[in-house]
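[job 0417] fold request received: ATP-dependent DNA ligase family profile domain-containing protein
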Amino acid sequence: MNLQSRNGARFNEVFPEVVWASFEHLPAGTLMDVEIVRWSEAGRLDFAALQRRNVAGPRAAEQLARVQPCHFVAFDVLKLRGRDVTGRPLVERRSLLEELFAPRPGGRSAGVGRADGRQGAGLAPGTPACTPSAWKG
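[job 0417] inference complete; emitting structure tokens
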């Protein structure tokens, strides 16, 4: 699992909880367009917390991951199991994204919501490092 920015900066040590959840739920060779977010106690996005995390060292980041977990919001699937899917229509990639986060027998439940309020797919609220996904499109 490699968590990195578009510029190639690695974030594995900065957001270990996102790496753990991604590794557990995504097949090898998956590349997605995601945004890392931090929800405040009031349910708002907390950009300052993301900035603090970005400058924290690995030890501090691990501690913050336990008390102020960050999450990822998935927008698109670019590769799945090593295959480029960007040539597929958005509706197909959206379906692939929903399948990635569908409930698994004996695993964690899914329940990602969408920006339009309809049921989507993904890791349920309370699942470490994952929050309801917002969709564009």
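[job 0417] notes: The chain has one domain: 1-137. The domain at 1-137 is CATH 3.30.470.30 (D-amino Acid Aminotransferase; Chain A, domain 1).
[job 0417] exit 0
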